[in-house]
From TrEMBL:
Pfam families assigned: DUF2334 (PF10096)
Biological processes, Gene Ontology terms: carbohydrate metabolic process
InterPro entries named in the record: DUF2334 (IPR018763), Glyco_hydro/deAcase_b/a-brl (IPR011330)
The protein, known as: Copper amine oxidase-like N-terminal domain-containing protein
Organism whose genome encodes this protein: Clostridium folliculivorans
Length: 458
């Protein structure tokens, strides 16, 4: 039977619709393929139009300053320096800018009202909250403080500005600033035309192994491994660490001590080495259960709107008070209900967990400005079997499964030893550690680790 004009028009429209639908479906799954461009993956990305509904009640600028008299300092040569003025603010120690500059052979020019530091090779311009060193710009982690008409700079910012690493000795209350030999990566940009990966350190709080000074240094060594290889990573942080059975309640807003200063210094160091921090609940526990074991948000815990908002806001307030930037939220053990996730979405654009168990292999967009980002490769519980399983998943290269995994740093520290003889950080890092093996695989398979807040349609 011959086709009439209506049949031809209908067939043409049907063909166009089929092509459009096929294109959109392919675009959805092509985001993680190796040769995509912006038009292919943009359907998955969120727009840059999100604004949190919450203004923190506690601000870093309002936090008190106190003088410290019982902590000693050494710079490069290991000799304890007597009578170094030191102050504390928001779990950071500060010393006079002029003092550290003189020790490191920099001249300081304050004629413009803000410090300008220089020596034969470097020029550093400081503002209250930022720096420019040669061509590199960044944010100061502790800000520049004017205390009694003297500029003070935090240990964290001294590490970053002068290429040093701070080694804390809690027992002797001593901080040694020694040369940090890690080399900067060639490129930290996001080549979206390549395959991407996502790395997350899990359950990171100031308790258990993280209250040991040597372990804090080992976390810095792990960060240097990722930094040197140009691999961005995430840190899911528990702001308060509680172990009821041990009568241990470490609230970083109220417990001022060198252990907590060391821990916040580690957070700062990770940020400066390519880390990005998110909230992993507030205390990650409830009742008599310890942090990291229980949860502070589920269908049975803090399930009302007021309770859920209180958990979220206490975490945000702590981050604000400590000047720790946060970019995502992850509910402990992914136990948040859909109702609680909706409340979290009022505060955060990125939720580092799957939307639901039927959407657990790839990122999921619920609207134009929120993303749920899962970890389909799971975690490393058994280093022998899980490391190889994750490596195999990278090698498979399935483009429909996001190459995202998480790892408890307390497992990796068992593979690291170091000592500081001759005022150098001499490291023995087992190349067969889970993190080292996965880093090698990511590089070999040409994946590019990215931050969660880079999954944005710019």
């Amino acid at each position: 039977m011959p086709w009439n004009s209506k049949t031809l028009i209908f067939s043409f429209i049907s063909l166009v619709l089929i092509l459009l639908i096929s294109y959109n479906v392919l675009s959805y799954f092509n985001f993680f393929r190796s040769n995509t461009n912006k038009t292919d993956y943009s359907i998955l990305l969120t727009k840059n139009n999100f604004k949190s509904s919450y203004t923190p009640k506690i601000k870093f600028s309002d936090r008190p300053i106190s003088e410290i008299n019982d902590v000693s300092l050494s710079i490069l040569d290991g000799t304890s320096l007597p009578n170094v003025p030191m102050i504390l603010k928001s779990q950071r120690y500060y010393i006079p800018l002029n003092f550290i500059s003189e020790k490191l052979n920099y001249t300081v020019d304050n004629s413009s009202g803000l410090p300008f530091l220089s020596n034969n090779t470097n020029k550093i311009l400081l503002t209250e909250d930022s720096y420019e060193k040669n061509s590199k710009r960044g944010s100061l982690r502790g800000n520049l403080l004017n205390y009694n008409n003297t500029f003070y700079i935090s240990i964290s910012d001294i590490e970053e500005l002068f290429d040093l690493i701070a080694i804390f000795n809690f027992e002797n209350k001593k901080i040694s600033l020694i040369q940090d030999d890690v080399k900067a990566p060639k490129n930290f940009s996001i080549p979206y035309n390549k395959k991407i990966a996502m790395i997350r350190f899990e359950d990171f709080g100031c308790g258990y192994s993280n209250i040991v000074d040597k372990n804090q240094t080992k976390i810095k060594i792990m960060s240097n491994l990722l930094y040197f290889n140009g691999m961005k990573f995430h840190v899911s942080w528990m702001p308060r660490f509680i172990v009821p059975s041990a009568n241990f309640d470490n609230d970083l807003l109220t417990k001022d001590n060198i252990i907590n200063v060391g821990f916040v210094d580690v957070l700062d160091y990770m940020l400066n080495k390519g880390g990005e921090i998110g909230l992993h609940g507030y205390s990650h526990q409830s009742g008599n259960v310890a942090s990291g074991t229980g949860e502070d948000m589920s269908k049975d815990v803090n399930s009302t709107e007021a309770e859920t908002r209180a958990v979220i806001e206490k975490g945000i307030d702590t981050a604000s008070a400590l000047n720790i930037p946060i970019s995502y939220y992850e509910s402990p053990h992914y136990r948040a209900t859909m109702y609680q996730k909706k409340i979290i979405s009022d505060y955060f654009q990125f939720l580092y967990e799957h939307y639901d168990y039927s959407k657990k292999d790839n990122i999921y967009k619920t609207d134009d400005h929120h993303l749920f980002v899962p970890t389909p490769l799971g975690r490393i519980s058994n280093p022998a079997t899980d490391t190889q399983r994750i490596i195999d998943k990278f090698n498979e290269g399935n483009p429909d499964v996001l190459k995202s995994f998480y790892y408890h740093p307390s497992t990796e520290i068992e593979y690291i030893d170091f000592e500081t003889n001759d005022n150098k950080l001499n490291i023995n890092y087992n190349p067969d550690s889970p993190l080292q093996r996965i880093v090698k695989t990511i590089k070999k398979d040409k994946y590019t680790p990215v931050h969660i807040d880079e999954l944005m349609d710019k």
